[in-house]
Amino acid sequence: MTKDIDLAGNDWKPATRLVHGGVTRSQFGETSEAMYLTQGFVYDTAEAAEARFNGEAPGFVYSRYANPTTAMFEARMCALEGAEAARATASGMAAVNLALMAACKAGDHVVAAKALFGSCRYIVETLLPRFGVETTLVDGADLDQWRKAVRPNTTALFLESPTNPTLEVIDIAALAEISRSVGARLIVDNVFATPLWQSPLKLGADVVVYSATKHIDGQGRCLGGVVLSDEKWIADEVMPFVKHTGPHMSPFNAWVLLKGLETLPLRVERQTATAAMLADELAGHPAVSRLIYPGRADHPQAEVARRQMGAGSTLIALEVKGGKQAAFAVLNALRIVKLSNNLGDAKSLITHPATTTHQSIGEEARAELGISDGLLRLSVGLEDAGDLLRDLTNALARAA
Ligand SMILES: *Cc1c(COP(=O)(O)O)cnc(C)c1O
């Protein structure tokens, strides 16, 4: 196998890294990345097997540890994110679980923002305490709450920004400082920002996690996740967990996601431009009581968003007047925008968090997070921007 152009030390832009990063060609010199659907690998001699196992000779051993196609995906993600090392996982949740499990043990303490993707909140609130890890949930935008919550035994700070579904923006550079003051690792779930608009490692975070299911695939085909950090932590803490507990990404999914990365900038730039236009058009709509978009000057953390994000987001949160009944009327009147709890797809997707993704947390927790019965989360797709605006304004007129 031969390596393609070496991106290290070059200042090639993301669009270039996303097409060429991580490519390793077989003896056939294929253009597109090869898909190595194999469980294991064979050795020429017993001595070669021994050397592979004791680390004296490079090479693959078993696809639960590493696989050539998955390795290309990991290398491309590193080239994009500016990370030293990465491990790809079967889903975004496997990546979040892996990062948190690798960062703590019984007796440790974790601080996380309250506004988390539902399953992330389950890991922090329910799963970690079962294994003797204490956790504290704070209001993510209030830096004083983080400062008060950290303790000498805090080993990880965990957040997503912008948050799901209210698109709150958390100051990552400030959190990195708080995290460093107690020697903890700052883990950022960067799904909503996308790797194009926000680089947590450059802002001082120690670990970045993605659900590759979202914008990285971007076409609704397969699940995936990835954990990115420094070489030492990945080798010492993440790799043993991957090897022995089995969350590694399948080579087929890695191949799909490698192809997804090639078009990531085209898709995310277009989706963001459409989202920004829709946010401006719908902000003053008589049926809308509140519109939240990180790219707008009226966003509650507009200053932080401008500082740490390259652009708004592909997502918009909007609250319609008239609560659940009006929200349902809008959803049921939409023709192009599809009802789905997923996001980051080529198809525009809309969800009513109060009755779907955030149903199980209960009314009190929803109120605390600002998830009202009229709130809708819109993930903007690749359809014609004018058609989307027409579909949304027609549906809002129906609800009014
Ligand atoms: C979707 C998502 C996850 C989980 O990813 P899966 O691939 O569905 O397991 C985690 N965090 C955020 C912010 C997400 O949007």
Automatic annotation (TrEMBL):
Family, as annotated: Belongs to the trans-sulfuration enzymes family. MetZ subfamily.
Key words, A-Z: Amino-acid biosynthesis, Methionine biosynthesis, Pyridoxal phosphate, Transferase
GO MF, one example: transferase activity, transferring alkyl or aryl (other than methyl) groups
PANTHER family: CYSTATHIONINE GAMMA-LYASE, TRANS-SULFURATION ENZYME FAMILY MEMBER
Modified residues (N6-(pyridoxal phosphate)lysine): 214
Assembly mode: Homotetramer.
Entries under InterPro entries matching the protein: Cys/Met-Metab_PyrdxlP-dep_enz, O-succ-hSer_sulfhydrylase, PyrdxlP-dep_Trfase, PyrdxlP-dep_Trfase_major, PyrdxlP-dep_Trfase_small
Role description: Catalyzes the formation of L-homocysteine from O-succinyl-L-homoserine (OSHS) and hydrogen sulfide.
Record protein name field: O-succinylhomoserine sulfhydrylase
Pfam families: Cys_Met_Meta_PP (PF01053)
UniProt signal peptide: none
HAMAP family with a match to the protein in the record: MetZ
Listed GO biological process terms: 'de novo' L-methionine biosynthetic process; homocysteine biosynthetic process; transsulfuration
Pathway membership, UniProt: Amino-acid biosynthesis; L-methionine biosynthesis via de novo pathway; L-homocysteine from O-succinyl-L-homoserine: step 1/1
Gene Ontology cellular-component terms listed: cytoplasm
Enzyme Commission code: 2.5.1.-
Recorded catalytic activity of this chain's protein: O-succinyl-L-homoserine + hydrogen sulfide = L-homocysteine + succinate
Co-factor(s): pyridoxal 5'-phosphate
Residues spanning the membrane: none
